[in-house]
Amino acid sequence: MRIFNFSAGPAVLPEPVLRRAADEMLDWHGSGMSVMEMSHRGREFISIAEKTEADLRQLLNIPPGYRVLFLQGGAMAENAFIPMNLLDGRTGADYVNTGEWSKKSIKEAGKYCTVNVAASSEDRNFTYVPPQQDWQLDPDAAYVHICTNETIGGVEYHWVPDTGAVPIVADMSSHILSRVIDVSRYGVIYGGAQKNIGPAGLTLVIVRDELLGRALPITPSAFNWKEQAAAGSMLNTPATYGIYIAGLVFEWLLEQGGVAAIEQHNIAKAALLYDYLDTTRFFVNPVARSDRSRMNIPFHLHDPKLDADFLRGAENNGMVQLKGHRVVGGMRASIYNAMPMEGVRALVSYMQEFERAHG
Ligand SMILES: *Cc1c(COP(=O)(O)O)cnc(C)c1O
Questions:
Q1: pTM above 0.90?
Q2: 195 an active-site residue?
């Protein structure tokens, strides 16, 4: 029996993907080996890695002038490797602070460069995206960093900033592949796999060719994007099993009709939950309507003493990982691509029932 897993990450994966991985566990396509046992330089694994990249390129419509890197270390490690890879010749970078993950990116970058916080939504407890007219951008910045979906606060960009000639670097960890994006508007897109792509341990970096070659000399080789691009992400052993599972997830997404189709499904799932939140005063979502995340939906009970009851009841009804992040408290439902509509329906019915019993 599968439960509805609302975890923010590592998170739910599509059931057909897990079944297929189980079927192929001992013997991948007649090779007599598990993918885990394959040499990353052998022809079997090379074919897996090539198809994974090709399917991702198709899903996101990645233009030819961009490289796709499969790295390790997570988004958190990239927060350090971004300035290391992009700073050469510049001293500073712009960061927009929209919440917990932006804050971590800013803190990490501050070890390597001068950080200019170009805008912040701290004044209203990170419940919105500051409009572009309020941004104080530095035209000499090496890049402008944004977190396009704040996993903890539940705040999402539904627009792309205009930063002129300065490249945008976007942490898309928790909403990549959930919506159609125009890759050409970004210099770098990055994210850990464990939210919407696959297992933890795999990190995706999509980088515009012309930004390669700006690394500081201290950049570790395994995290130097130019060196990794030249080596096809195999300068060192990549997260082979993670790449394989990501590949199965990409195939599943293509079967669902691609990103445009899953986006419509995601809009419908999020609307179901937000529509209920908007009709009740028993649960509250604090985020500005225009900036609400479709992937991570925080909400709290007006009486936090009921939180434990709510979470216990949810678990008894087959719904887990609904506890909010400790920074914001309350509850959070993460409803990534692989969360079925039935999961959201079950959650909303349970919330309605809970309101009837305690409201
Ligand atoms: C989860 C998350 C991270 C951290 O990813 P790690 O793989 O744990 O390093 C960074 N940014 C965002 C937006 C996230 O959701």
A1: yes
A2: yes
Q: Give 192 Cα–ligand 1 centroid separation in angstroms.
A: 6
Closest by Cα among 231, 226, 152, 132 to 188 = 226
How do the domains of the chain map onto residue ranges? 15-255, 257-358
pLDDT tens track, the chain, 359 positions:
799 999 999 999 999 999 999 999 999 999 999 999 999 999 999 999 999 999 999 999 999 999 999 999 999 999 999 999 999 889 999 999 999 999 999 999 999 999 999 999 999 999 999 999 999 999 999 999 999 999 999 999 999 999 999 999 999 999 999 999 999 999 999 999 999 999 999 999 999 999 999 999 999 999 999 999 999 999 999 999 999 999 999 999 999 999 999 999 999 999 999 999 999 999 999 999 999 999 999 999 988 999 999 999 999 999 999 999 999 899 999 999 999 999 999 999 999 999 999 98
Q: Is 101 a catalytic residue?
A: yes
- H-type alpha helices, 233-297: 240-255, 258-279
CATH topology for 15-255? Aspartate Aminotransferase; domain 2 (3.40.640)
151 in contact with ligand 1, CB cutoff 6 A: yes
- Report the distance separating Cα 174 and Cα 293, nearest Å: 10
Pocket lining: 75 vs ligand 1, CB cutoff 6 Å? yes
Work out whether the CA dihedral 66, 70, 71, 72 comes out positive or negative. positive
Confirm whether 171 is a catalytic residue: yes
174 lines ligand 1 (CB under 6 A): yes
Cβ atoms < 10 Å from Cβ of 69: 21
Atom of ligand 1 nearest to the CA of 76: 9
Indicate the CATH number for domain 257-358: 3.90.1150.10
Q: Which atom of ligand 1 is nearest to the CA of 151?
A: 15
